[in-house]
Amino acid sequence: MSVRAGQGIRIRPEDRLMVDGQRPAILRLRDVLVTIGLSRPTLYRMVRAGTFPPQVRLGAASVGWLRTEVEQWIADRAEAR
37: phi > 0 → left, psi -120 to 50 → alpha, else beta; which? Predict the structure, then answer.
């Protein structure tokens, strides 16, 4: 999925905050880096290249990633091996 600056990202119902003990629906940078095991520069390089899901703006100075998109990216990588 490629999103250009200025385009909105719809948050699907399954990406809303989970209350049943699962991880939050939106992962912050630190959580994404730990989950995927890559460095911050590599992550942002992949976002720019369109090979990793784009971040969602949470506020004026904060972003996060949809948990379902990060998990799907991991599953896609595992299938491609």
Answer: left
Distance between CA atoms of residues 29 and 48, nearest Å: 15
- Say if residues 67 and 15 touch (Cβ distance below 8 Å): yes
Structure tokens at 29: 């940078």
Question: What is the residue range of 34's domain?
Answer: 29-79
pLDDT 10s digits, 41-58: 999 999 999 999 999 999
Indicate the average pLDDT of the chain: 83
Does residue 58 belong to any structural domain of this protein? yes
Q: What one-letter code names the amino acid at 44?
A: Y
